[in-house]
Here is the input.
Amino acid sequence: IATRYRFAQGGNHAHDLVMQFNHRTYSLTADAKAQAPGVSGSDFAFTQAALAYVYQRRPEHGLGPYSLNVTAGQTWYGGDPYLKFLRIGGNQKVLLGKNAAVSFSASGERQIGDAAPDADILRADMRFSRRVGKIGTLGLSVGHSDSASVTDVSDYSEWRSGVDFNLAKPILGARVSFGLDWRQRDYPRSALDPSGRADREISASLDMVFTGIERFGFNPTLSINASRAESNVDRYDSEKLGVTFGIRSAF
Here is the structure.
């Protein structure tokens, strides 16, 4: 659940409060219960709550619109406090004529663990978008992150890139977008491999927002996601396929 409250605005700027809440829990199969008596799916539940302040401005002169944000949050694992975090970031968009733009974003995050390791995370991303005739909008992105921690699972360096396309015309009454992403994360230390750990992941997504259907200011959504991850540590190899039905604000 995410909601935004705009408590002040002018002709070219706005102040928002953003509230987010996410909860994921599980149910165990009969085989899983037989292997772990006395364990329930809620023991693996993950919850996150966050509150953010966002300042947005569209200057009359200069490079283009920009935003600044501060986010504070808390997570829980199995119902117990897991970690607290504070994130400060910003985004600058540069217009390249009428049909193209490039945006830059950066953030720094401090994680303080209750049951997780402390970590300091720096992240930077760049995205280029261009309108392709009347077909839609093409997006290209690249980014890098560094996480510093005393524990091997939270000490890593990551590179990522992606391509996405948003169709201009609806299909079957839905606004359609799809994308392909690649990520490589390197851990200099690993308790499972003396040479460290290297993960590579490729993922694909298809998102549909049914704008032709609206109830109480919301549109239904459908998302299909697939990913494949490979690692030099076999336990981190995975293949995932997910289908998500949801609702999104029409405003």
The chain has one helix and 13 strands.
